[in-house]
Design goal:
elongated, 3-stranded antiparallel beta sheet, alpha/beta, 5-stranded parallel beta sheet
Length: about 525
């Protein structure tokens, strides 16, 4: 890929350039991308976003440099079970294992060897369902298998320096006892957060005292007998694996700074990092799993295809975005428009669709009809089956069928579900004002008389020109007020599609009848 192309506007390529610069400086010929996962809970929409976004940067890196790379999905499954989750069975059983590594906690679902293994399996199934190219890594396996031993000894040798990096960020009580090294109790198996009384670098051990029994222990830091507190663990992982790129949420900005300082204390530079913004609910509040004000992957995929979710994740990752059901139609239409734009562009690398499809957009991607348009059609005709929508679509596009337009076929099913659950229950018509009533009567008359005098490239554009002309001639100010009338008076919705396209799909005669129904409804109300 040329330098000129790489400097185009897509953010994954800008990130890839940073990774390429790091490799050049270090003299490396391959890159390691990493994403992290805390398996105390199930994978969620943020997990999807992080892996998808990292995958796009990785794909851009390949296109930019031609160098090999790997994506490591790292599970911190040696972390201790700190509290019993609300969404699991057998809660009483789990309480007996608080403080133990997740891979040493029985699976409350009874399907895997441990709670950590269960959630790891869920993570892998989750990532596999989206076709991500990744390698899975288990913290427990790396600790117990000795893959971190050299790095852990390196941390031990710089124990006091790391403590001084972290200490200013802690409260007085924790500051007095903090150590980055957490020994695993040899008798109870609990991850201990205790003061380290001494560190023997030559022996590779730390000495500490059990606060409950007063027994003093000397524990090796290698072989899985100890783990690191997570900020130090993050830095140690970067050091041990030579990670080149990792992104994380805005809530971890301070942790990134601390981990970066720690990895520098270990003698290397931190990876290239990207901080992404967090999601907000419809009221602008931070999404919280405990509050239940978020939107899950499963919920999104009930009402729109995976490509639309990817489109939502692609756009402006460093800008806060509201994540609730109302954003779904826009994301689906943005994806469809992006496919068209990528196919028409001289260089498709700046298109989200190019990244979403891994650099090769399928020939059957996209749809000749937008999702919002389908939603409005489903709403007007009260569609409860695909056949109802297909009847209108074939009148508009005679050659249309599920085989030729498989993505459209999917969208039809999603539109029925979305209309059923969100549009139909909230449909609310209002009466037209005097000015709007005159405009609607004029629109009805012009539709009935034909519109050859309003030329356009397609029937939808011709009708759109007519709709615009009516709004302008009747002096709707701003012109948006005219379209608000069409959506609210005729469709019972606050927003809607390009109305010319809707009329072309719904049919002129039916639209005339829709106007007549609305005007008759007003007359009856009066």
């Amino acid at each position: 890929m040329s330098e000129q192309t790489s400097n185009q506007l897509s953010w994954p390529f800008r990130e890839a350039e940073r990774v390429a610069a790091r490799l050049k400086e270090k003299g490396k010929t391959s890159a390691l991308f990493e994403t992290g996962y805390g398996p105390s809970g199930l994978p969620h929409i943020g997990t999807f976003g992080e892996v998808a976004r990292t995958s796009w940067v990785r794909r851009a890196f390949t296109e930019l440099t031609g160098l090999p790379s790997r994506l490591l999905a790292f599970s911190d499954d040696m972390d201790a079970l700190r509290k019993v989750p609300d969404n699991v069975p057998n809660k009483d059983m789990l309480r007996a294992f608080l403080g133990k590594p997740l891979t040493q906690v029985p699976d409350p679902f009874g399907t895997h060897s441990s709670f950590g293994a269960h959630n790891n399996a869920r993570l892998r199934a989750f990532l596999d369902s989206f076709g991500f190219d990744y390698e899975f890594a288990s913290s427990s396996e790396y600790y117990l298998g000795g893959k971190f031993d050299n790095a852990l000894l390196h941390v031990l040798a710089r124990h006091d320096e790391i403590v001084e990096i972290i200490r200013p960020t802690l409260g007085p009580e924790r500051r007095a006892t903090y150590s980055p090294i957490l020994p695993i109790h040899p008798r109870t198996g609990i991850v201990m957060q205790v003061p380290i009384e001494s560190a023997d670098v030559a022996a590779g051990t730390v000495t500490w005292t059990d606060p409950e029994t007063g027994i003093r222990f000397e524990t090796e830091v290698t072989g899985g007998s100890a783990k690191l507190q997570w900020k130090a663990d993050w830095a140690m992982r970067w050091y041990a694996l030579d990670v080149d790129y990792e992104m994380s949420g805005k809530d971890l900005i301070d942790s990134v700074k601390l981990s970066s300082a720690i990895v520098r204390a270990l003698g290397v530079e931190p990876p290239v990092c990207l901080t992404y913004e967090l999601f907000l609910d419809e009221n602008g509040q931070k999404i919280s799993k405990s509050k239940g004000n978020g939107l899950s992957v499963e919920q999104w995929l009930t009402y729109a295809p995976p490509e639309s979710l990817a489109q939502f994740m692609y756009h402006a990752p460093q800008r806060a975005k509201k994540l609730f059901f109302d954003v779904i139609p826009r994301a689906a239409d943005d994806y469809i428009n992006g496919v068209v734009g990528a196919r028409e562009a001289a260089d498709p690398h700046a298109s989200p669709a190019w990244h979403i499809h891994g650099g090769e957009i399928p020939v059957d991607a996209g749809s000749p009809i937008g999702f919002t348009m389908l939603l409005n059609l489903a709403s007007v005709i009260n569609a409860d089956s695909p056949e109802m929508l297909w009847g209108f679509i074939r009148a508009y596009l005679p050659e249309a069928d599920a085989e030729k337009y498989p993505f459209l076929s999917q969208l039809i099913n999603y539109a029925i579900a979305y209309n059923r659950d969100f549009i139909a229950p909230n449909k609310k018509f209002r009466n037209a004002t005097a000015l709007e009533r005159v405009g609607l009567e004029d629109l009805k008359a012009r539709l009935a008389a034909g519109f050859a005098e309003y030329p356009g490239e397609t029937p939808a554009e011709k009708i759109q020109n007519l709709v615009y002309a009516v709004g302008k001639e009747h002096k709707f100010t701003p012109l948006k007020a005219w379209f608000d009338c069409l959506y609210q008076v005729l469709l019972g919705q606050m927003e809607g599609p390009r109305f010319g396209g809707f009329i072309a799909l719904y049919g002129i005669e039916r639209t005339i009848a829709l106007i007549e129904t609305a005007l008759a409804r007003e007359a009856q109300a009066a």
